[in-house]
């Protein structure tokens, strides 16, 4: 039997089971019935040979087993299958979950990121403005403090200075836009790692100054509020955003 013929046969079995369920006063989704058919066929106690084509006797027995399970009253096994189906349809893998978080972060911080990568700093004031923007970006992307919290800003400033001193900011400016974006992500991880290491080395939980270690909390409380707290103001004459310490 070809793959096409096998798929058509399975669809036919599912349709017949759905029709019979309706006759008995039960309404189920096609997905649930398909899941039930699969579970019945793969259950070794039912003795179906998946390596050969089902006979008419096998098909009738398969339909009857599925109907019995689907129409059984107060069936823990049916409830279990429904929960398993719901889990399979809604479960997100760890990689997909983290990728979605990063996608949301990139979306929420796109304006700030664009302001950093597109800037054409020339004066000393422009360089300071850009440096403060990078600090704001690192704090928001890592979720390890508010740009309005002077302590968080100073800690991030010190950590960033050890990686990318203000005097060497020119090396960042000559990068192409894509490389600047990658550099921002790497700086965020490095600076956050430095802050975490310093705080952890204090060996005293009461001294831990990092307010939020989970990006999920930032997403949960709402990025709109978090970004609003940044209190970004225009730097006079430069047209670039600067965070103002609260």
List key phrases describing it.
cytoplasm; 246 residues; Cilia- and flagella-associated protein 206; 66% helix; mainly alpha; 2 domains; two-stranded antiparallel sheet
Protein described:
- The chain is mainly alpha-helical and about 250 residues long.
- It has 2 domains: about 90 residues, no CATH class; about 150 residues, no CATH class.
- The chain has 12 helices and 2 strands; from the N terminus they run ααααααααααααββ.
- Strands 1-2 form a two-stranded antiparallel ribbon.
- Helix 1 packs across helix 2 and helix 2 packs across helix 3.
- The longest helix has 24 residues.
- The chain starts with a helix and ends with a strand.
- The C terminus is likely disordered.
Strand % is under 5%
The SSE string, one letter per element, is: HHHHHHHHHHHHEE
Distance between the terminal alpha carbons, to the nearest Å?
A: 72 Å
Number of domains: 2
Which class of secondary structure composition applies to the elements? mainly alpha
Spatially, the strands of the biggest sheet line up as 1-2
Number of helices: 12
Largest sheet: 2 strands, antiparallel
Number of strands: 2
Helix content: 55-70%
Overall shape: it is elongated
Query: For the residues shown, what is the average pLDDT?
Result: 79
Rg to the nearest angstrom? 29 Å
Please mark out the parts with pLDDT under 50 across 5 or more consecutive residues, or reply none.
212-216, 218-246
InterPro entries: FAP206
Family: Belongs to the CFAP206 family.
GO biological process, one term: sperm axoneme assembly
Main location: cytoplasm
